[in-house]
Fold each of these.
Amino acid sequence: MDETKPIEWLDGRVRLFDRSSDPSEQRDVSGERPEEARALGEEARMWLRSLPRITTPGESTRVTVDEEERRWLKALGYIR
């Protein structure tokens, strides 16, 4: 199991922690593994962009819901 965890700061910097040798995440290894930090940071940004977001009045957005999510929403009474 991969124990590498990226954390992206608001300014875009990515810190990288190897949780197998540093479970308390005290030692940033992004300087030693810059390509891995860059790749995991980009993967995290892509994931965040895929999430629904709150919009302002008048702003349109499109949310895609897969079948499993649709079943959950229906079971919870959010959709018919």
Amino acid sequence: MDYTYAVLLLHKVRREVNEETLTKVIVATDVEIDETKIKSLITSLQDVNISKELEKVKLSTVTPIVEKPKEEIIEEVKEEKKLATEGMWDMFG
């Protein structure tokens, strides 16, 4: 997972993601270097557009919320408020 975070960090700061830059980031974090993992990760990312993949993830996490009908969301909020109110009465009973 550390290697993946390092790739995301390099991408975020707009640095080229390659074996050299990834190794530098890993060394800076005092994590044990595994050259095989680095080479494998760089090879697997060769034809990947990281920006597009991150955008897909953002959209997929938002989609379920948007697909709910407005009325269903309103009912859920009302129920949560009702439960919270009942809980308050129990506390101060």
Amino acid sequence: MKVVCSPDYPLQQTELTLDELCRERLLLREPGSAIRDTLESQLYLAGKTVYPLWCSVNDSALLAAAVAGLGIAILPETYVLEELKKTAPGGTLRSRPGAEKITCMPSGIEINISQNR
């Protein structure tokens, strides 16, 4: 999974806890989709629940909404990486083991998401 938003999305810090992520304006796939089930299972294990702003069956629509600044989308990593290759200079992403990232489209800036600070 990859967490994406616009560079203009109003995040107050560069690291989010799971609680903070769950309170953001989330743009998610429909209930029952593999990515949504995986996300909700992981959040359930951490004792968290998510209430999305908007749901769609279409990854492209969710990504477009995120790029437009409507919220934060959680999408399949392979899809996001392909889209970043089209939009980000060099098409590369940094990653750190054990940490999820918010990747701001199209700039490729990453923001840490952690269980705790």
Amino acid sequence: MPPFHMAVLSPSACVSALGLWVEGCVLMDGVEVGDGAVVRRATIDKQVIIHAGSSIGVDQVARAIRYTVSPNGILVIGSATSSSSAARVASVESSMTR
């Protein structure tokens, strides 16, 4: 199966091709997804950086605690709101169910 499944990517989204998985997502302008990252059922706003190896939207408990989640279960990560911050950085979800 290809690394992109039911995903919409902005033409300026920068996505690594090394072992990543993007499923059910919308990635806006300037989004960067690093090597080996997994992003599921998420809308990622402009200029957000998802570091290599990150898991976003995988752990259901962590996603509800750390992010805004729509009633339909779509995780939302907004862009940086401060002019002094170049981008909001999405970090690895810790597994709270292990």
